[in-house]
Amino acid sequence: MRCPQPSAGALISLSLLLLLLSTCSALYEDQIKKRSVHVGALKHAHVDLKHFQPRVLLTTQEQVVASLCPKTGQIIWRQVLEQRARGDIKMLQVSGFADGSSDTAAAPMGSHLGFDMLTVQGHAPALVRGWNTNIGTIEWEWSIMPLHTERAQDAVWFYSNSILYHVVPAWRSHIEVTAYFSTSGHTTGSTSKIMAAWIKPESCLLSGSYFVCLDGKQLISLDLVAKSTQVIATSLAAEPSSKIETLPGLNGVLIVNKKLVSVNKDQAVCGELTSASYVVGSFNYRKVVAYADLVDGMLKINAVYLDNCSPVPELQMSVAFAEDYGTPSLRSFDCKLKRNDDGKGCLFLFATSAESIMAVQQGRIRWAREESLANIIDTQFIDLPLADTEGTLENEMKGKAGEFIPRNGDIVTAFMRRITAQALQMKSMFLHLIGLGPPPTDTQRAGLVRDSFGLHKMLVLLTRAGKIFGMDNIAGKHHWKLYLPNVAGFENAEQMRLIVQRSSKHFPLQPLCAIVAKFVNNSNGVLFRFNPITGRAAEGGLLQLDYQIKQFSLLPETEVDFVKGILILDAANQVHVEPKHATPLADGMYLYTADVKTAELEGYIVKYAGGELSCLPIWNVRLGGHNSEQQIISVAGKNPIEHVHSQGRVLGDRSVLYKYINPNLVAFVTQAPDAAHKSVLTLYLIDVVSGSVIFSMTHRKVRAPLNIVHSENWLAYSYFNDKVRRTEITTIELYEGNAQANNSVWSSLQAPFMPLVERQSYIIPTIVEAMRETITERGITNKHVLIGTASGGIVEMPWHLLDPRRPISSSTQGREEGAIPYIPELPLPTENYINYNQTVARLRNIYTAPSGLESTCLVVATGLDLFVTRVAPSKTFDLLKEDFDYILISIVLVVLTSGSLIVRHLSSRKLLKQAWK
Amino acid sequence: MSYMAIVLFSLLATSWSFLEHDSWITIDLHHSLSSSKPDHFSHRGNISIPSLNAGLSTVVQNPLTAAELDNIKLLAKQNGFYRLRATVSYPNGNVQRFLTSSKACSLLMAQFNDVLWISLDPYGYVTGVTASQDLAPKSSECSTDDIQQVKENNFSSDVIIRHAELAPVPDTGSFIQKFEREREARERGEVRDTRGFFAKYWMYIVPVVLLVFISGATNQDAAK
Asked: Residue A23 — pLDDT band, cuts 50, 70, 90?
């Protein structure tokens, strides 16, 4: 098999790289970047081992066409196609594997058909594309625009004998079938209309050339390519409990109640088989049906010959199957072409409910791809645990858990403690050296120990499928995986959330994360608590709540176990706290809810009295306008871990303009259609504790897509300007003025009402897909805005350029203040792209987290691909340069010291000699 | 002082943006004074605003009864919220209810002087009504003695209307103008400079000539 493997060229480049590395052994920025490339959850798949270049051709739910290496699962090529309905892949047809035509198993891969592989995408227009499967290029393309666009949404396609059939059902009336030559797009004749009043949208499907509908206990079917349009009724033993499915590869065969049923009288099936998933393939020049089931954690694969239903012993196998993959379903299989096959060359391709793609060969899992990572919805960086020695030291310093040490204890005991702690450390180090120390824990063995700069962290990724990953942010290794079946995002288009309940700071206690989600079956809330370092469930793991979650918030840490409780507002406006012992901390908490559709906000205060939690509505705001035509399209609060280092801005005349830093300020953006201005976008800044509308601003002829960042005293948001057809960014800064109302404590209830608002708009010559501000430990470092573009690049934009106080006329005042003169278009220099050529396909979100170094911020960009790196907005001022020459400086030091010694010696000798003269 | 500034700002704000179709609204105010019955609201007064663009209002409010005053004092002691419900009626008969709260204590400390902020969306519909008290220094602490001394029972409210402002657009016009001006200035500068070669570059020529002289002189010295 030929797959992208380290070839000679790669080896040469590797050795070159090594040579270069040996000349300067340093870590450069491009080496700390990690990108993993994904394709998405499997839609159609075709394993092809008989081709001169064995490959797995597939299309995915993310509208990607790709070819994988059957040996390793690596991507040979990948094409990311159009998004949304336009790119929806309806059909994948690989040449030489057509239903009913030249599909004897040994048929040569026919180029006489004019294509290697063809795909059909979208409905209006429908795009038919022919692909070169070796290099992944489109060779030809044709499209059709259907007459009835809305009817064409349900259109299906099938291929038979070089002809592509477009089947448009008009529900409860008729079926329109048009045949096209597959490579040219010419019709073979007129559209034929077949009367069929029995077709219903919910129970019909296409199986090969048969249009089949379920009607109670019978299947009604129609062969669309037959001369006579005769309706065939096939009765079933029982009414199917689940949806009927088609079995690709066999014309007119369906899977009903886990059994095979044929509506095609020329096609016999083995009706007594029962399995969750079937697939048709060929083995030893005979057609076989393979099926696979999960039995007690073992994946059992079986196969029967289609002609006589006798089992194929060579293909029988059972494989240990990890729970975190979810439920597998067999999607395709193929065997290498050889006589008297022993079945060892057969590859079975599975798609699982946790959106993995895996290949089974010779009784073991050959490879598995975690494609749920193509849909990451939340991430967190978790500090790694301390190394043992540091841990004990820290523990001694803090005092043992539960033991109370007064801060102002007398100096002698503190000194004694210090000495004993260090003696203990010495002892453990000595034991470790002679190999008698305590054995390293699992996490330490895996290299998961905190580094001195806090750059090495555990990256916890939550995916839409409910799979959770613990990933090393430097090596990119998946340390653990968890799968939560039957969870989903919330109403109001809210996704599941990943929250940190206890950080790694409380040493003997392990960190704790939680996932807040909705249970699919009854839409009640679900909490799942786990240890983010080991990936094991903690505190009881999965907790099914008996109420629906409307809003939740984190409480401050408890004194006992340092867990941040979760305050939950349920659908009946009752409040709950989880874990229960944190309940008293909920007293005096404020909560708010926002309904996206009606654009209504409501604020509540939570009270705890007499062991009872209660919540009282205290304010409401209606952004919906008159008939609630306004809808909230974005809500942006500030990062709760953010620190603002400088409280003001020094002006040209050396006075200070104080920042309006309100941690409770949340930005809401609404959009509504407008008669005069097409579409109107309004930004509201609302204090969610007092419920006051601090500021509001309207954009005319402007619409989504909207991306917004909100931090410190500023916010920046990008939108599409419909009038001039370009993307623009508006920035806002809020200032209290020349005096601060209260510089020690912020209270929203006694806040200055009208901050000064600076605003400015800029043109950005790209399409913005995601925005995020950088964040650092103490907030001393400058803030940059990371802008993800549609081409997959991430641009680091300094706040100086987005500053709304950039002066239009180059006045001296602006220059004194350090502001750059205003230029309407923002520059996008290529050196500001932090990912160079490693573009992130379908970039959706950027997450940032502080590292242990003040200068450095950790970044994860998610989309179809995953990209992890770190940025230093103010350069690495607290680090020596990577290419710092330690050898040179030590040589210089040694030479200088020894030189001065020698010179001193010489001069004393000279003095002595002179004295003798 | 800050209040004056706020009024000034609001005047400025109204001058920045105003409604295309001016209209009037009336607001009915009800308040909840009892912590034991949080859902019971009693009538406080009403406000009519004949023109949203002009921003002038007439406020009619009932004085508090002694029992109500006691209730508020009790509420303040419990550090409770004084909740105000504003029912806004529009000319087309639509009615919307808004809720706002402030600490009962700060209302007492402010002697029932409060400011009602009415925020409008770009079409002139109310988005939120907020009651706030003037910021008095040291008002964050609520002492029982101070509360008991309050004898005032009349509300005195100011109404401030806040319009949605119009967002800035990228200012390409003035940038191009500035650019043009600079270009013109440069061109004008080039045209005006009609001085001769020596007049323009004498400052470069003189030192060179001087250098030549000096070096020549020293060479002559050396030759001698």
From this structure: very low
Q: Please check whether residues A275 and A330 belong to one and the same domain.
A: yes
List pLDDT tens digits, range A96-105: 654 444 443 3
Flag whether pLDDT at A491 surpasses 90.
Answer: no
The answer for residues whose C-beta is within 8 angstroms of residue A209's C-beta and 6 or more apart is A99, A100, A158, A160, A165, A223, A224, A225, A226, A251, A252
Look at A630 and B174 and tell me if their CB atoms are within 8 Å: no
Looking from the CA of A475 toward its CB, the CA atoms found within 13 Å total 10
- Token pair of A624, please? 């919906």
| Amino acid A910: pLDDT | 94
Q: Alpha-carbon distance A538 to A482, whole Å?
A: 13
Residues in chain A closer than 8 A to B162 (CB atoms): 693, 696
Identify the domain boundary among A531, A546, A561: A546
Q: Could you give the CA distance from residue B126 to residue B97 in angstroms, rounded to a whole number?
A: 10
Residue A243 domain-assigned?
A: no
Is residue A410 located within the same domain as residue A425?
A: yes
Residue count (chain B)? 224
Q: Tell me what the pLDDT averaged over chain A comes to.
A: 85
Rounded to 10 degrees, the C-alpha dihedral A186/A188/A194/A199 comes to -40
Chain A residues close to B98, C-beta within 8 Å: 620-622
Judged against a pLDDT cut of 80, whether residue A247 lies above it is answered with yes
Query: Which amino acid is it at A589?
Result: M
From the CA of B13, how many Å to the nearest CA of chain A?
Answer: 10
Q: Are A608 and A599 in contact (CB under 8 A)?
A: no
The whole-angstrom distance between A38's CA and the closest CA on chain B is 38
Q: What is the pTM of this model?
A: 0.85
Domain end residue (candidates: A797, A814, A840): A840
Q: What is the ipTM of this complex?
A: 0.79
Decide if A352 is inside a domain: yes
pLDDT digits (tens, 9 = 90+) for A852-872: 889 999 999 999 999 999 899
- The enclosing H or E element of A278 equals strand A277-283
Range of the domain at A563: 552-622
Strand spans (E) along A353-495:
356-361, 364-370, 376-383, 457-463, 467-472, 478-483, 487-488
Helix (H, G, I), strand (E, B) or coil at A390: helix
Contact A700 B166 (CB under 8 A): yes
B106 CB neighbours in chain A (<8 A) are 749-750
Together in a domain, A609 and A678: no
pLDDT in tens, A539-582: 888 899 999 999 999 998 888 888 999 999 999 989 999 888 88
| Cα–Cα distance for residue pair A187/A183, rounded to 1 Å | 11
In a domain, A305, yes or no: yes
The size of the A-B interface in CB pairs under 8 A is 134
Residue A660's nearest CA partner among A610, A624, A695 is: A695
Instruction: Say if residue A879's pLDDT is above 90.
Output: no
Q: Quote the minimal CA–CA distance from B65 to chain A in Å.
A: 24
Same domain, A717 and A613: no
Q: Which of A623, A697, A728 sits opposite B127 (nearest CB)?
A: A623
d(CA A732, CA A584): 38
Q: Please, which pLDDT band fits residue B13 given cuts at 50, 70 and 90? A: very low
